[in-house]
Amino acid sequence: MNNIQAGDILAIRGKGWLSRQILKATGNTVSHVGLVLAEGAVSGSAFVIEALSRVKTDTLSQSIADAEKAYILSPLNLTDEQRQKITDTAAGFSTRSYGYFDIGLQWLDAVFGSRWFTDHLGWGLNDHPICSYVVAASYASIGLTFGKVQNDSITPADIYKFAVSNPTKYSVKEIK
Q1: Can you state the percent helix, strand and coil of the chain, rounding each to 5?
Q2: CA–CA dist 70, 157 (Å, integer)
Q3: How confident is the model at residue 125, as a pLDDT?
Q4: pTM for the complete prediction?
Q5: Angstrom distances, CA of residue 165 to CA of 41, 146, 170, 172
Q6: Each residue of 76-115: pLDDT tens digit?
Q7: Domain ranges of the chain
Q8: Cα gap 144→138, rounded to integer Å
């Protein structure tokens, strides 16, 4: 787990019931994302902020312990100042409640093959974020996006697909 830096994205394929539902809905390999806040002094002890039942920070080792697969999506060519702005923005979400209403809207979008529900009915993600919103909003703080998907509608799969399909912008490394 060398070369993990603050601002890198952790993408996970979970094993639980909610993870399986997200995978079915998005048709991709990942069901969750988090953001590396700081490198750890020991390999595997980097700190990751992620929206679970609340937005919280754990070590990378704890975050991937129950994962089936895990990837680090490392943006290329970011300055230290940009990485700091990304992590400062993410840290601002700390301890907020999870956006269960908004995950329901994403489920409706998956059922109807649209993004209408999240684009038109999503509200409160800043106060009650989902995992992909924390990552997308943090990157938006420096003017970066993950394609044309709005932050309110973005899924872990959208972030992963964007990184994989843009090898000049991201390196993707499987860590579990």
Answers
A1: 35, 20, 45
A2: 13
A3: 57
A4: 0.86
A5: 31, 11, 9, 10
A6: 999 999 999 999 999 999 988 877 777 788 778 878 888 7
A7: 9-174
A8: 9
Going by the DSSP 8-state scheme, the letter that residue 35 receives in this structure is E
Q: Contact at 8 Å (CB) between 101 and 124?
A: yes
- CA 48 to chain centroid, in Å, comes to 10
3-state class (DSSP) for residue 62: helix
Reported CATH class of domain 9-174: alpha beta
Give the three-state DSSP class for 147: coil
Secondary structure E strands in the chain: 9-13, 32-38, 47-51, 55-59, 69-75, 170-174
By residue count, the chain amounts to: 176
Please write the tens of the pLDDT for every residue from 119-131: 777 665 557 788 8
54: β partners: 97
144 token code pair: 């970066």
Q: Which residues pair with 148 in a beta bridge?
A: none
pLDDT at 126 (0 to 100): 58
